[in-house]
Write a structure and sequence with these properties.
By secondary structure, the chain is an all-alpha fold. Helix content is 85%, strand content 0%. This is Holin.
């Protein structure tokens, strides 16, 4: 139902894939910035990187689901 609504609003699978790759880049960037800017050590930097990195599979999944609607 959600994917159908996203498709009807004009969101394309390519946008979801682009968001997934951007999420991977943002994950790495947030890890580097957190590691250098905060005095909390590597543990906090790792948590930031993992948190943002978990978005990528969601966006890839949405991309695959949207691709199914685009083929119809």
């Amino acid at each position: 139902m959600i994917v159908k609504k996203l498709h009807e609003t004009g969101i394309k699978s390519e946008w979801a894939y682009a968001a997934a790759f951007a999420s991977i880049a943002l994950s790495f960037t947030s890890w580097v910035i957190s590691k250098k800017a905060e005095n909390a050590g590597t543990d906090r930097a790792d948590r930031w990187g993992i948190f943002v990195g978990q978005w990528a599979p969601t966006f890839f999944g949405l991309g695959l689901a949207l691709r199914g609607y685009e083929k119809n």
